[in-house]
Amino acid sequence: MADAYVVGDPDGLSPLLAEIRDAVARELHAQLALRAERIELADVPEVAYQVTLRVDETVRRRGSAPRGGHRAE
Question: Does residue 71 form part of some domain?
């Protein structure tokens, strides 16, 4: 997936919001691939849960970055 949502054209978003947007897009893409390009209504809670985990992971990773804004790798 090489579109702006993964590449990170921030469209005026803060770096954190751009990372969250990218994480949500990646997880939705993965969920659609797992579910034959279709998310059934009954699957929405599980998809939302997985998206929430990706957002939490992104926020926690940013929170553990040293001062100066660079992520620890």
Answer: no
